[in-house]
Write a structure and sequence with these properties.
Blueprint (H helix, E strand, L loop, with lengths): L1 H24 L2 H9 L4 H21 L1 H6 E6 L2 E8 L2 H12 L6 E4 L2 E2 L8 H17 L8 E6 L2 E8 L2 H13 L5 E8 H9 L1
Parallel strand pairs: 2-3, 2-4, 6-7
Antiparallel strand pairs: 1-2, 5-6
InterPro entries: BON_dom, Lipoprotein_DolP, Transpt-assoc_nodulatn_dom_bac
Organism: Sneathiella marina
Protein name: BON domain-containing protein
């Protein structure tokens, strides 16, 4: 059963990666997305590959860990969210993430089940959906450069902000959503990102 499930996961991952290839070879719409994204097409593919490898290794370790956690990768920076059974599982997730080539940083924001507030997945999904919609509707925000995860009513942001003013707008939108307890930002400023890449 586990093998069948992993095959399904692998097919989904390959289909995602082939979708990225479509961005490279595709028409005007795909090109527009690639131009709008602050990450290069190569970086987008690298991030997808890193995420797929991490998820595959987590699945090999434990199917429940795979099911109860999520992994987001942006410019080699990994964010892991969700709930795990024991503190040792948190350590193992970090170890797995760091074992994948190309990983620059790992932010392990998983919590141990029974410690603290249990997340309400429907409520978290609603917060994420509302925030993504607000970012999309705000013409002063390049929403394509942001990833949003919500766990236990805590909003986690990743991506690249054009400037501090844009990031402030993103965080302000998150604060306006009912039920949000706090915001954790791993967003990089565009100026700092390019400075690091050229230095």
């Amino acid at each position: 059963m586990k093998t069948v499930a992993f095959i399904c996961f692998s097919l989904l991952a390959m289909s995602f990666l082939s979708g990225c290839a479509g961005v490279i070879l595709g028409g005007a719409a795909a090109t527009g997305v690639a131009v709008a994204e602050e990450r290069s097409v190569g970086t987008i593919v690298d991030d997808a590959t890193i995420a797929t490898q991490i998820r595959g290794k987590i699945f090999d370790k434990s199917e429940p860990l795979f099911t109860d956690t999520a992994t987001t990768v942006n410019d080699g920076i990994v964010l892991i969210t969700g709930q795990v059974p024991t503190p040792d599982d948190r350590i193992e997730l970090a170890r797995i993430a760091w074992s994948v080539q190309g990983v620059k940083q790992v932010h392990n924001r998983t919590t141990v089940k029974g410690q603290g507030e249990n997340p309400n997945f429907a409520s978290d999904a609603l917060i994420t959906t509302k925030l993504k919609y607000q970012l999309l509707a705000d013409s002063k925000i390049m929403n394509i450069n942001y990833s949003v995860e919500t766990v236990g009513k805590v909003v986690y942001l990743m991506g690249v902000a054009q400037n501090q003013a844009e990031l402030d707008r993103v965080e302000a939108h998150a604060k306006e959503i009912s039920g949000v307890r706090s915001i954790v930002s791993y967003v990089q400023l565009k100026s700092a990102l390019y400075k690091n890449k050229t230095s």
